[in-house]
Amino acid sequence: MALIEAEGLEKRYPGTDFAAVAGIGFRVERGEAFGFLGPNGAGKSSTMRMLACVSQPSGGSLRILGEDPVVHGRALRARLGVVPQDDALDLQLTVRENLIVYGLYFGLSLKRMRAKSAELLEFAQLADKAGERVEHLSGGMRRRLTIARSLVNDPEILLLDEPTTGLDPQARHILWDRLFRLKSAGVTLILTTHYMDEAEQLCDRLVIMDKGLIADEGTPRELIDRHVTREVLELRFPPGEQEQAAEKLGGDVEVLPDRLLCYADDGDEVLTRVTEVGLRPLTALVRRATLEDVFLRLTGRSLTD
Amino acid sequence: MSRLPAAGGAHLVVLRNVWVHKGGTPWTMALFSVYEPILYLLALGVGVGALVGEVPGIDVPYAAFVAPALLAVAMMNSALEETTNTVYGKLTFDRFYHSLLVTPMTVRGMVAGELLWAAARALVTGVGFLAVIAAFGLVRSPWAVMAVPAGLLTAFAFGAFGLAAAGYARGWHSFQYVQLVMLPMFLFATTFYPVTVYTEWVRVLVEALPLYHAIELSRGLALGEVGPGLLLNAAYLVVFGGVMLAVAQARWATLMAR
Amino acid sequence: MIRALTYWLFRYRRTWQGTVVVSVANPLLFLLAIGAGLGSLVQGDVEGVPYLQFFAPGMLAAAAFQNAFIDAGFGVATARGRERVYQTAVATPLSPGEVMGGHLLFVALRVFVGALAFVVVMACFGLVSSVSVFVTVLLAATLTGIAPAALVAAWAVTVTDFPRLNTVFRFVVMPMYLFSGTFFSVEQLPAALQTIMYALPLWHGADLCRSLALGTATPGMTLLHVAYLGAMAVAGILIGRVTFRKVLYV
């Protein structure tokens, strides 16, 4: 049985005729790391809120752990872990108290939480900060604490909304490491992100969302194979010359505001052609195609904000 | 599997608030809460009281007349303090309650919990101030002990009002309007003189105020003038609080669904 | 200094209606509830006049004093702290002294407007007997507000946490507000407390306002009160010049 099954899932907010989620279907299996990718406003967060059982679907069907979230929302929430985008930690309490109090909200005993909090602090590498007020923590520490907090009830599913947005590279890598450990321990991860490298690092399977719909679904490799070539040549030209260069070059070329992307299985071959037709790019770079290229293909030329 | 917290986890909101305040013992908290009413009791009850001859129709020193009113006001203010600004900040800026949505806590439980906490704060204030009144020798009847539980009704009524107000506030400045209502109510709801000084139509207005009933109840008990009328006062507070609680519950449910 | 004042006036454009309502409503409520309501229970005269007449000028001084503390204390601390208005201002050719002066002028203006509203309400109660009483009482109340304002601003600019302001307000301003001969005569207090009250600024402000309002002012006492309050204002400005400079030029 899939842990999560969605069919024709919709979300409309009262007072608007616009559908934040306009009918999507997907399944998440036990032990998977499943990602939602998409530009801002694609409907990722709305979907996550429905999965967290805090927002009711306006249409379609949704089953979480085999249950209907509308009927059993409260009991289901007790079995989920949620890492919200804005941490929402209790600023007036210390690091350890945040964990303990949060556990109590789940109906866990104080005694149990005293032991559990020590374990979680260790996991989040925050043991030496246990007595400190949350206000004094860095962004990365806060996010690790939020993740630790989401684990108080040993959740079967962990929902993470943009887990590394706003963190510096070091903090991101520490966080990825922790999430990877969770995954190895068998926790099902569901996350949203607009970092392609994050999706490639963490997700076994992902869906790309755009305008409330699923644009495509698959493993990162599958998506790359399906939508883009093996390699990409990035070319930069002085402002204003891009369009002409693209026309002159022909082939599978994507025009971005700041550069041209030429898709090909052999990038160097294209680069040779560039010089042959007499183009003089400011910079040229051949690289492997990434999810970002898939993303740009499927959701429009640039990140819409 | 753990069992889901009872009553939507209301008691856990209280527990969390206790933790936040654990630096201060209940008695330092009470000291802070009774400080202002003591000043008023000294200035108006004792100071101005020395100028007052007899309160028409009431056979007690002026300070003994004012003290139970200040008790009701102090408990009201404690409840309001804990439910207006504090809760608004947690609701809007800290997004504290939103962070609880993903737990098995319910919105009703959160509202009930904050109200319970406000009542607990008021209780501490009430006990503290009653002790002060007793120390001043202003207790006139054993019924005065009942003024504190009666004050809990006051705390319930105004705490529920505060939670509703916090739900509807559009910014910190919104609470100025609350002040704009509270100050005249404090001054006119027979805190400092009996309702008989008013002409007939003003009297009707004053008797419509919730604080008037809170004071009547408190004063009636403290002065030992116990009669069935007090039940009406209590009923008013229960109904007012009940309506406000329903308003707060509905409003919070809407806010949390966003 | 005028430029710094202009800034505050500019901001005030948006909120002045509300504050005018409050500055008229407050005296009206207190005069009605305490002066007239509670006063109706007071037997005989206080210091030779009916209670309302005794109470009104004291309340006027107390309100000016309290509003000045709130405006100067919380206003200055916010401008320096959360809003960082001052830091922005001293990045321009404005000096810390001008920044302080501008803000103090604004506080003085607000105190004046509040006092004006109060005296008008008093006149409606028939408590102002002539134009000269109207003017002198208005000026006296304004002085009662300005005197602490500078000192409070000089201190508030160094304060970074609001709870400290609240503590001072509760434990210093509130007792002064209630016991400086505002609600009842200082002479009712025990002798030791009386002496303390005589040493505090609000008693001087209240006595100044009351003696002018009731026509019982003597040149000697009036001079003493004005000198006391004036000296306090000057001291505040001198200290403020130092603290503002220290805090803003770091």
Can you describe this structure?
Chain A is of the alpha/beta class and 305 residues long. Helix content of chain A is 37%, strand content 25%. Chain A has two domains: 4-219, Rossmann fold; 229-288, 2-Layer Sandwich (Alpha-Beta Plaits). Chain A is built from eleven helices and 13 strands. Chain B is mostly helical and 258 residues long. Helix content of chain B is 71%, strand content 0%. Chain B has helices spanning 10-20, 26-47, 62-83, 85-92, 96-101, 107-135, 147-168, 174-188, 200-207, 210-222, 229-256. The longest helix of chain B has 29 residues, at 107-135. Chain B starts with 9 loop residues before the first helix and ends with a helix. With 250 residues, chain C is an all-alpha fold. Chain C is globular and about 60 Å long. The model of chain C has no long low-confidence stretch (mean pLDDT 88). Chains in contact: A-B, B-C. Chain C: Belongs to the ABC-2 integral membrane protein family. Chain C: GO terms for molecular function: ABC-type transporter activity. Chain C: It is found in: Cell membrane; Membrane.
Enumerate the spans of chain A where pLDDT stays under 50 for 5 or more consecutive residues.
Answer: none
Number of strand elements of chain B:
0
Tell me the structural class of chain A.
alpha/beta
Q: What's the arrangement of strands in the largest beta sheet of chain A?
A: 5-6-7-3-8-9
Overall pLDDT level of chain A: 89
Number of structural domains of chain B: 1
CATH hierarchy: architecture of the largest domain in chain A = 3-Layer(aba) Sandwich
Question: Approximately how much beta-strand content do the residues of chain A carry?
Answer: 25-35%
**N/C terminus separation of chain A:** 37 Å
What oligomerization state is this entry in? heterotrimer
Keywords (chain C): Antibiotic resistance, Cell membrane, Membrane, Transmembrane, Transmembrane helix, Transport
GO molecular function, one term (chain C): ABC-type transporter activity
Membrane topology (chain C): Multi-pass membrane protein
GO cellular component, one term (chain C): ATP-binding cassette (ABC) transporter complex
